[in-house]
Design goal:
Number of helices of chain A: 8
Strand order of the largest sheet of chain A: 9-11-8-12-10-13-14
Radius of gyration of chain A: 21 Å
Oligomer: homodimer
CATH architecture of the largest domain in chain A: Alpha-Beta Complex
Strand content of chain A: 15-25%
CATH topology of the largest domain in chain A: Phosphoribosyl-aminoimidazole Synthetase, Chain A, domain 2
Distance between the termini of chain A: 31 Å
Number of strands of chain A: 14
Order of helices and strands of chain A: HEEEEHEHEEEHHEHEHEHEEE
Number of domains of chain A: 2
Largest sheet of chain A: 7 strands, mixed
CATH class of the largest domain in chain A: Alpha Beta
Chain lengths: ~325, ~325
């Protein structure tokens, strides 16, 4: 077997068959991946969540994960924040000719480990190969199906609701940028890439009526999530700077790069809008799950600055958090 | 609005929001695409088919279709050949910086038209942008969900079964290669890109017990499908050269390129293995549907050459059809 990706690995012939059987299925789980044109699945219910995401991150390996674990966790999280239990993933890979197969294997191994940890199965897939200079090592698409064991978690947001997050913000984007730019002082940085479904299940089971809205804060960070939920609505979203969990290393690198951690992508953080009176108890519940151990209330929904997100700074002023024209960190997911 | 894709079109900011709202959702169908992290879907049953495919074809526009119609039909067909009724598609797009937005719009319009014709809804999506030289205009992933109104069409294949195809072979790959290489004498060539779900529904409804196996003959062509079903099995698959529907233009171009039409990709052809005694009636049923008007019996399952595909040539000899090491036409889907 060759040790890099060849054009023929993407064809309908023996080379592709060998790659799919010996490398991809073997690693991702030959017991779960069905080889037919489609996987046949038996669902426990008739209401499902369906999502898709393509991952084009560079570099493909970074502290705390790689494009494989990212592709599993990112799609698991898009299902989980709807209140759905993620069950099945597809995996479609675009390989650039010349990619060392060892790198591919590490990525696939991470996908498998992430799927096992999150409790989802990869059931169907596809492989394409593009020539050198028409891709960038590997792009992965995962689509996902989840089922609803309780109704979708989407309710009206009201002033007085609390804004909760499950830990430190900005880790993923900062770690990827530091790795990409070989920043030597960034040793402590690591992506927060993690599945949120166990955490969210814990919250839903304990406080099924208290959750208004959940969203994972990926591209555009926490500030973009808050912009989305306040846009054209009769309330504002206020953050308290003193309450924001930000690692010192993230603060340092983001200051150096001139970037606000509130706009930096996370890959294991969920913004939860919840009934204000239940928020402290919800945070305690979240802390019981590994992915929620640093959970905190970071702000509230207000009657002020309707339609906007803003932050009350350490010195007591309010600073607006507008939707940015573009992300400052390209290709972080 | 700019007229080419910019890096910021892939970020979590306003530029991406505008692209998604004004161009993508508007064209693909704002009434069906849900804007949340996942689409919430109500299914008519609990057994589903789930599939995924990434499309990296070049050129992205070709006689008979473009990457958009291909991405819809290809995934619809992967569901249909299982015997499932395709219902929902996701659409994830990787755009190369610099792509003219007009080209993107044409692709999206074709996706929408193909989805409408096939009767499926695009319900969720994702957009990423990669820098110049890290992609090739546009790559599209579609994942699809179908439901089973009757059991999956997978039964034991037996000697005496007929091999049926719904029309001319090799059109897609030949048309794309001719377009790519600007072959001036190839005016009559056009891709067969089409959805197979209406055709297959007709067959299943009329002859539910007679179908053993169906597979769309894409990468690797008809020969690769027959290799797949005969591999390590106690029967062979025999084609009759005189019965094979091949357009003269396809024969001409494939001879020029030194390629056998049996190995050329199709995008609207299904190989059906069916009970031999019902095969003529099935072919008549197929001819009632536009996508089946040139249907024909092209061979049979035999006790000879077990584990192999072969063809009885015009002069009466048998020629083996081995699985190729690699596809001769790269990036045709």
């Amino acid at each position: 077997m060759p040790d890099t990706v060849l054009p023929g690995h993407g064809s309908g012939g023996k080379l592709m068959n060998d790659l799919i059987h010996d490398t991809i299925r073997e690693t991702l789980g030959s017991e779960s991946i069905q080889l037919d044109d489609s996987a046949i699945l038996q669902l426990p219910g008739r209401q499902i969540a369906f999502t898709t995401d393509s991952y084009t991150i560079t570099p493909i390996e970074f502290p705390g994960g790689n494009i494989g674990s990212l592709a599993v966790n990112g799609t698991v999280n898009d299902l989980a924040v709807m209140g759905a239990a993620p069950l099945y993933l597809s995996c479609s890979i675009i390989l650039e000719e010349g990619l060392p197969l060892d790198e591919l294997k590490r990525v696939l191994q991470s996908m498998r480990a992430a799927a096992d940890y999150a409790g989802v199965s990869i059931v169907t897939g596809d492989t394409k190969v593009v020539p050198r200079g028409k891709g960038d090592k590997i792009y992965i698409n995962t689509a996902g199906i989840g089922v609803f064991n309780s109704p979708p978690q989407r309710h009206d947001i009201l002033p007085g609701d609390a804004i909760i997050i499950n830990g430190f913000i900005g880790d993923h984007g900062t770690a990827v940028m530091a790795e990409r730019n070989k920043l030597s002082f960034s040793k402590g940085l690591s992506s927060d890439c993690a599945p949120l479904n166990m955490l969210i299940r814990q919250v839903i089971q304990s406080y099924p009526e208290s959750i208004r809205f959940m969203r994972d804060a990926t591209r555009g960070g926490v500030a973009s999530v808050l912009n989305e939920i306040t846009k054209d609505r009769p309330f504002g979203a206020k953050l308290i700077e003193n309450s924001l969990p930000v690692h010192d290393e993230v603060r340092g690198v983001s200051e150096l790069l001139g970037i606000d951690p509130l706009y930096i992508a996370n890959e294991g953080k969920v913004v939860i809008i919840a009934d204000g009176k239940d928020a402290p108890a919800i945070v305690e519940e979240m802390k019981k799950v590994p992915e929620g151990k640093d959970s905190a209330i970071i702000g509230e929904i207000t009657d002020d600055y309707t339609g906007s997100a803003y932050i009350t700074t350490r010195v007591g002023g309010n600073r607006m958090l507008p939707l940015l024209i573009e992300e400052q960190l390209p290709r972080i997911c």
